[in-house]
Amino acid sequence: MNLTKVIIAPDSFKGALTAREAADIIADEVMSAFPDCEVIKMPIADGGEGSVDAILSAIGGKVISAVILSPDFRKIDAKYGITDNGTAVIEMAQSSGITKQLKLNPMTSDTRGFGELILSALDKEAREFTLCIGGSATTDGGCGMAAALGAKFFNKQRDSFIPCGETLSDINNIDTSGIDKRVAESKFTVMCDVDNPLFGKNGAAYIYSPQKGADPEQVKILDNGLRHYGTVLTKTFNKNFNEIPGAGAAGGLGAGCMAFLGADLKSGIDAILELYNFNTQLQGTDLVITGEGKLDSQSFQGKVLSGILRGSGKVPIIVICGVCDCDPNLLKEKGITVFEASEGITIEESMEKPEKYLRLAAKKAMKG
């Protein structure tokens, strides 16, 4: 085996190593075995906390700080990234995330802080956005975000208000004329790895709001609110967002981003590979190395490996994982070579010293 160009694009090894740490370790071993090899590191994030760091570490950029509203309406410091090519990368977890409040507030938390980060990036001249919407505290359908950007919501008494989960049913009409004009000049891509509709038994409220502190009665209120909100969105934008896969992501923020931002919802891995210009970088590549904690059938369904398989063409793929629970015939069919960090030891031992055993697996992979 003689390698002249390698792409290293691992996911995190949950509970053991970040994607960035894993990429660095694998890169060390590739360079050790092939000193003249061009190595391109693309640590993969899933759209949740840590996405900005993973993306900036791979393609370069700067971190920007802003003071914004937390989901429970306190002033907090939040960060987002602007890549070297000018794309703003914004994590919902930084502004309206479940860890950004003092206690769970399933009925009243909103996404204004997320909208404020978008405004801050617009002020920095960003017009391309990658929005990472994992880890939300909210079920407001993105109303807070829209309000921060200039949308106005009115009840039947024609009073203006900013809806939250418990008041979505009070929305009578929406005025979008005041939305910042720069939004229409911008392109928004949402990293979204769920396909839930806006409401119903598989919707935002029933599936996700219990994790945000909602009891069964509150879940019903939130679901009814999202159902009503969906009707108002359809009337306002002359488009039905309710059943579009991902509309229910992040408490309905998926639908809000499509409606108010004109956003495209993409698989998280597809969005991040596009951000990394994966298809272009693939030219002249001899090998793609990816990795994750556990390789199993789910790895082929919307996760990192599935995206890499779709885009890699005939370039060989190596997966370095903590443990493999895949049918060998499936791996052979897909043309994937696997190296396990836990081979010959217990999974517990491999997780106690993850760097050591990942390094050994990478070293073995380079010997072919």
Write up this protein.
With about 375 residues, this protein is α/β, with parallel strands linked by helices. It has a domain at about 55-270: Glycerate kinase, domain 2 (Alpha-Beta Complex). It is about 35% helix and about 20% strand. It has 15 helices and 14 strands. The protein has helices at about 20-35, 50-60, 90-95, 110-125, 145-150, 180-185, 205-210, 215-235, 250-260, 270-275, 280, 305-310, 330-335, 345-350, 355-365, and strands at about 5-10, 40, 60-70, 75-85, 85-90, 130, 150-155, 160, 175, 185-190, 265, 285-295, 315-325, 335-340. The strands form 3 sheets. It has a 6-stranded mixed beta sheet with strand order 3-4-5-6-10-11, sandwiched between helices. A hairpin with a 5-residue loop joins strand 3 and strand 4. Helix 1 runs parallel beside helix 15. It starts with a strand and ends with a helix.
Keywords for this structure?
elongated; six-stranded mixed beta sheet; five-stranded parallel beta sheet; 15 helices; 368 residues; 14 strands; Glycerate kinase, domain 2
Quick recap of the structure?
This protein is of the alpha/beta class and 368 residues long. It has helices at 19-33, 51-59, 92-95, 112-123, 143-148, 181-184, 204-208, 216-237, 249-261, 268-275, 278-281, 304-311, 328-334, 347-352, 354-367; strands at residues 5-8, 38-41, 61-69, 75-83, 87-91, 128-132, 152-154, 160-161, 173-175, 187-191, 264-266, 287-295, 317-324, 336-340. The strands form 3 sheets. It has a 6-stranded mixed β-sheet, with helices on both faces.
